[in-house]
Structure formats: C-alpha cells, structure tokens
Amino acid sequence: MMKHDRILGIFISLTVFIWILVFALSPQPKYRQMTNISIPELPMPVVDRDSLETIEFEEVKNSFFKADTEDTLPSAKDRISEIDFNFYVYKIGAFGNTTKISKLVKSFNDQGFPAFTEQNQSNKNLTNLFVGPFASKRDIEANKQKLNNIAEINAGEVIAWNP
C-alpha cells in the first residue's frame, strides 16, 4: 500500500510541476509584441475587351469539333454475369442408416472437410450427405479421390449450392 501512495504522490507532484512550468515559461499577453504584416495590393489585370472575338451560336453549332460519346467500357452487369458466385458441394450419396451417416460425417470432419446432411426430397426415408462447400468445381476435382476414399465410394455428384 505504501508503494502505491508514493507512486501517486510522485505523479501528482510531477503534474503540478509541469503545470507551473507551462504557465511560468509561456509568454504573457501583456508582454507580447504585436507585429503587423502588410500585404501589398496587386494591380487589377488589364483585359482588352475589343480584341476578344465573340462566338456566335451558329459558329459553335457548326464547329468541326466532335465529341466522342460512344461508351466503350463494359457494363458492370455484363461483368457480374460472367462471375460464378456459386459454391459447390460434393454429394456422397443418400443413406437410410443414421449410424453410417454419423460415422461418415465424423470421418470427413476428421480429415478437414466440412460435411452436412439434408433430407432427400424424393424419398423422405433417406438423408443426403454433402461435403463442402467448395469455392469452385476445380477444388472438388482436386479432392475427389480423397473424398471417395473416405466414403468408400466410386463416384459422387458435384452440385451447385447457394446457402
């Protein structure tokens, strides 16, 4: 407790000392010397209005200058339509055995692949097992053999997936 009191005392003493220095060393307003700066005036520019030509509307209308207004930049809509915003999943299969599904999901997760299930739309007794999502079909192709080996299947199905 004594150490904290000393640190607090030193802090307060330094603060008071700094404030005294600021006020003692700062120039006081009554002792300041006022300096006026004079900026010379610049002469007004001289314009010979008679030498300027007046441009009539007809001269502007018949001018040889033609502005190129053709839009040569591709539109953002065209560029976005070319970009693939889909994710892809690899469908391992449809299974009816929940124990087998749980083992496969765990196996994929243990190997670093996210896996999830969805109920099969055509047969409510089956559950679809998917691995992914992957950013591209190329990613699935690169890992297809490993995915097939984990699930002990010969082939799966690549499906576009939007969450």
Mean pLDDT: 78
Report the CATH topology name of the domain at 83-161: Alpha-Beta Plaits
**How would you sum up the global shape?**
flat
User: What is the total tally of β strands?
Assistant: 4
In DSSP terms (H or I, runs of 4 or more residues), the helix count works out at 5
CATH architecture of the domain at 83-161: 2-Layer Sandwich
Cα gyration radius (Å): 40 Å
Distance between the termini: 60 Å
The amount of helix comes to 25-40%
Superfamily at the CATH H level of the domain at 83-161?
Sporulation related repeat
CATH class of the domain at 83-161: Alpha Beta
What oligomeric state do the depicted chains represent?
single chain
Task: Give the neighbour order of strands across the main sheet.
Answer: 2-3-1-4
Encode the helix/strand succession as letters: HHHEHEEHE
Largest sheet: 4 strands, antiparallel
Which spans have pLDDT < 50 for at least 5 consecutive residues? none
What fraction strand? Answer: 15-25%
Structural class: alpha+beta
